[in-house]
Amino acid sequence: MKITKIEPQKKHKNRMSVFLDEKFAFGIDTFSLYALKLKENDEIDEKQLCEIKNTILFESAKNYAANLVSARSYTERTMKQKLMDYTGDEATANKVIALLKEYKLIDDADFARRFASDYINLKKYGRRRIKYKLMEKGISPETAENAIEELDCADVETENLEKLMIKKLSGNFDIKNVMKAKRYFAARGYSFDDIDSTLRKLKAESEDGDSC
Question: 86 vs 22, 115, 140, CA distance in Å?
């Protein structure tokens, strides 16, 4: 195999993309590139390529991933995409992912639990919206559902919906205002049954107050 092109990467400074026989082969940091004395038109055999991927690429990707998880949490899918962008090599990305999972530096179940807790308690979203957001991030439907169920958040969800609806309606139960509120809370992930029951409760309380 011949190195047909070496060019700087756009997303990562101090990294180069190496092409073998006109096809992208891997990304490598500038220091390692020069240390290995790789340059265009050089010939590389399978053994050399394996050594590069198993040592240089893996160590670089491992350090890159460690820096990422030290700043914030990642789902497995998001981390793999970042590693693929960084190395261009799926085998290396999978190897680093396995190491991160072994040390619990990536844990989709834990990520889902913390994410769901924040979205219920802080952002006041309903469980349907939370599940959708988790799946967007690469969390499996089962893991997302389990995380929400583990929170046992039914009472919190009901309380959140009631408080938000009081604020949204401001005592105005005209059909136009009610329909607007229904659409708003459905979009926030609350079930239609919960929305209707909360509306009935608030409307009854409002009518009781008017009759006094």
Answer: 19, 26, 24
> Domain 3-102 classified CATH 1.20.1630?
no
Report the DSSP beta bridge partners of residue 29.
Answer: 15
Answer positive or negative: Cα dihedral of 195, 198, 203, 204: positive
Q: What is the pLDDT of residues 24-71, one digit of tens each?
A: 888 888 888 888 888 899 898 888 888 888 788 888 899 899 999 999
Render pLDDT for 165-187 as a digit per residue (tens, 0 to 9): 999 998 888 999 999 999 999 99
Q: Cα(200)–Cα(161) distance, rounded to whole angstroms?
A: 13
* pLDDT(89) > 60: yes
Name the DSSP letter for residue 43: B
Q: How many CA atoms lie within 13 A of 92 on its CB side?
A: 30
Domain ranges of the chain: 3-102, 108-211
pTM: 0.71
| Predicted local confidence at residue 210, as pLDDT | 62
Both tokens assigned to 41 = 């038109």
Adjacency order of strands within the sheet including 23-29 = 3-8, 15-20, 23-29
